[in-house]
Amino acid sequence: MKKMILTLACCLAALTAAAQYRPGYRIERPRTVHAVRTPAPAPPVRSRYASRYGGRYASGFHYNDAYFGLRLGLGLASVRTNDPYLDGGRVKAGLNIGAVGGFQIGRYVPLYLETGLYYLEKGGRGRDDGYSFTYGLHYLEVPLLFKYRIDVTPWTSVQPFAGVYGAVGVAGHIKDFGLREAYSSFDDEGFRRWDGGLRLGLGLQWRHLYAEMAYDVGLANISHDYFDDVHTGCFTATVGVNF
Question: How far apart are the C-alpha atoms of 174 and 135, rounded to whole Å?
Fold first, then answer.
């Protein structure tokens, strides 16, 4: 009896194991859920002109910065005319003072557009029959310049520039030392108030200090007389600061 019970128990156990066994059956392990990695943002594209000093240009400005500057300098001016008796080709010294502002117009090229407002003392000197005379022509002038910044050292840049200017005469006198007379430069017997031309020059910046040399080539005829051709010219040396 005991052997029969033991045999039945063994058979039941074998049938249970056979029922649980399946050919090709594989117990799958629970999958581990991995966090999806978000790709890191691509580094910003930087101009080859930007230096390693905080992403700035050598002059200290960011590539997309605007700037503001103050200027003070000396001018050597002349008045060119086709009338040999009225030619003021000898230079006359004068003051120039102004304020400028500029901004970069190309993201990957250090090209800047600059404008501002200047007060310039132009004019000229000449001689007639042994007597001298002077032309005093004082202008408010607005330039429009394109400047290209060339980095030389980490904090120094050279800036060649070219552009145009427009000017209006606001003061000045013509002095005839032979007749001992003086009268306004911009009346009916003097010069026209409006002037304009080209400006060419070269600037140098170290940190926030700035210096430049420029020449204004007057293209407008400022004479009231249709038979005369009169043009201004002025060389300027200027210093200042940029913020």
Answer: 5
Handedness of CA 70, 209, 216, 125 (dihedral sign): positive
What residue type is assigned to position 47 of the chain? Answer: S
Count of H-run helices and E-run strands, the chain? 1, 11
Residue 24 — left, alpha, or beta (φ > 0 → left; ψ -120 to 50 → alpha)? left
Angstrom distance (rounded) from CA 62 to CA 20: 74
**Per residue in 7-61, pLDDT tens?**
444 544 443 444 444 444 444 455 555 555 666 665 554 444 444 333 444 444 4
The structure tokens listed for 80 are 């060119």
106 CB contacts (<8 Å, ≥6 apart)?
none
* pTM (predicted TM-score): 0.71
Write out the E strands in 82-193.
88-104, 111-128, 131-148, 150-153, 156-171, 173-176, 181-184
Rounded to an integer, what distance in angstroms lies between the CA atom of residue 64 and that of residue 236? 29
Please say whether the beta carbons of 94 and 123 come within 8 A.
yes
